[in-house]
């Protein structure tokens, strides 16, 4: 029997339940097979990608928890918080695709793992410069952490004045059947450096416009001022610590007892 749809184009809107079986019957089985396998492969890749993101998210949480623990410990032991705040972010799919394109790599899971080292990002903001190094070293000392790269843009600021300590570390994520070493990018900086970077970020990714060079110069000068202030503030804090009487053993014990009821988040 001649198929009534064979001689004209079938739009997807026409494919209601009544005509669908007839329309499908016109597609050769080899094409149907190929379509089925392609769809299955695509769904499989989507699930793999989703799982990979989930594992990176776990690695990110682990690193954040490690910093939270360090902050709590410092608070209990030394009565101060070296970390002012912690931010985390998982790189968006759009940014991943953009970065792979820049690197001339096709979008597949192996390339994501091999070429992108900042899927999981943790930003640690400290009040003082010496605390940046203190918490970075305290993290790196932990025996489940492997350092992949360390870039010290505080010791050697970027041309535009950008300052931060960047670490790429590997942390194990334990799943029910597997242990995976996942990379996490950690950026450590002072509050002042962070303030500067968030403003500069708005300029960094903008294409040229009239007056951009002047703004870049102003920002560079501002970064110098911020750096000087960061150093002065740190020195004032050190002097204050020296001038304040060293507490007696009893005072330390009393302070620790007093802290017993401090809520631990
Ligand atoms: P990306 O490809 O941008 O990740 O840079 P990279 O692989 O050379 O690594 P780098 O350590 O230099 O920078 C990593 C991240 O640090 C960036 O994604 C930004 O979040 C931040 N960063 C680096 N340089 C600058 C800068 O000049 N200004 C600002 N605002 N942020 C920066
Ligand atoms: Mg990046």
Topology (SSEs and partners):
Elements: H1 20-25, H2 29-78, E1 83-90, H3 93-102, H4 109-115, E2 120-126, H5 129-140, E3 146-152, E4 165-174, E5 179-190, H6 191-204, H7 212-243, H8 249-259
Parallel strand pairs: 2-5
Antiparallel strand pairs: 1-2, 3-4, 4-5
Helix pairs in contact: 6-7
Task: Write up what this structure looks like.
By secondary structure, the chain is an alpha+beta fold. The protein has one domain (12-240): Beta Polymerase, domain 2. It is 54% helix and 17% strand. The protein has 8 helices and 5 strands. It has helices spanning 20-25, 29-78, 93-102, 109-115, 129-140, 191-204, 212-243, 249-259, and strands at 83-90, 120-126, 146-152, 165-174, 179-190. Strand 4 (165-174) and strand 5 (179-190) form a beta hairpin. Helix 6 (191-204) packs antiparallel against helix 7 (212-243). It is elongated. Residues 1-5 have low confidence and may be disordered. The protein binds guanosine-5'-triphosphate and magnesium ion (MG).
Number of domains: 1
Q: Based on DSSP secondary structure assignment, what is the total number of beta strands?
A: 5
Tell me what portion of residues adopts beta-strand conformation.
Answer: 15-25%
What's the CATH class, please? Answer: Alpha Beta
Overall, the morphology is elongated
List the uncertain runs.
1-5
**Count of helical stretches:** 8
In brief, what are we looking at here?
By secondary structure, this protein is α+β, with helices and mostly antiparallel strands. The protein has helices spanning 20-25, 29-78, 93-102, 109-115, 129-140, 191-204, 212-243, 249-259; strands at residues 83-90, 120-126, 146-152, 165-174, 179-190. Bound molecules: guanosine-5'-triphosphate and magnesium ion (MG).
């Amino acid at each position: 029997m001649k198929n009534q749809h064979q001689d004209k184009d079938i739009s997807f809107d026409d494919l209601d339940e009544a005509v669908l079986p007839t329309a499908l019957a016109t597609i050769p089985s080899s094409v149907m097979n190929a379509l089925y396998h392609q769809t299955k492969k695509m769904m499989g890749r989507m699930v793999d990608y989703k799982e990979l993101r989930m594992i990176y998210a776990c690695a990110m949480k682990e690193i954040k928890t490690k910093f939270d623990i360090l902050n709590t410990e410092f608070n209990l032991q030394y009565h101060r918080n070296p970390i002012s705040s912690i931010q985390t972010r998982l790189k968006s799919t759009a940014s991943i695709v953009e970065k792979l394109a820049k690197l001339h790599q096709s979008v597949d899971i192996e390339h994501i793992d091999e070429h992108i080292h900042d899927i999981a990002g943790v930003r640690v903001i400290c009040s003082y410069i010496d605390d940046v190094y203190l918490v970075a070293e305290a993290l790196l000392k932990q025996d489940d952490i492997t350092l992949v790269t360390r870039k010290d843009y505080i010791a050697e600021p970027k041309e535009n004045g950008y300052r931060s300590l960047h670490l790429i570390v590997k942390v194990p994520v334990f799943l029910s059947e597997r242990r995976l070493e996942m990379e996490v990018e950690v950026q450590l900086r002072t509050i002042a450096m962070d303030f500067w970077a968030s403003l500069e970020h708005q300029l960094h990714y903008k294409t040229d416009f009239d007056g951009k060079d002047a703004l870049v110069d102003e920002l560079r000068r501002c970064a110098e001022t911020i750096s000087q202030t960061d150093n002065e503030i740190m020195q004032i804090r050190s002097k204050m610590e020296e001038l304040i009487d060293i507490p007696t053993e009893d005072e330390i014990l009393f302070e620790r007892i007093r802290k017993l009821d401090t809520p631990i988040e």
